[in-house]
Design brief:
mainly alpha
Length: 66
């Protein structure tokens, strides 16, 4: 669907995501800095714990609970 200026909704969404990523405000970059979380360490820990972690307690693996 075009907006009259020749842009589709998908291309506008892509442009917005690209802009946010360049600004450093995407979830992985911006929020991990705000919460003083080492994103790579958190992700490695979650991947290691995930196979044996109970589904009922999945919220324990979220970055703000880590």
């Amino acid at each position: 669907m075009e907006d009259g200026g020749g842009l589709t909704r998908e291309s506008r969404s892509h442009d917005m995501i690209t802009h946010q990523t360049r600004k450093g405000s995407c979830i992985g970059k911006g929020h991990s800095k705000l919460n003083n979380i080492d994103l790579r360490a958190w992700f490695a820990d979650v991947l290691a714990r995930l196979p044996d972690h109970p589904a009922k307690r999945i919220d324990e693996l979220l970055p703000w609970n880590w």
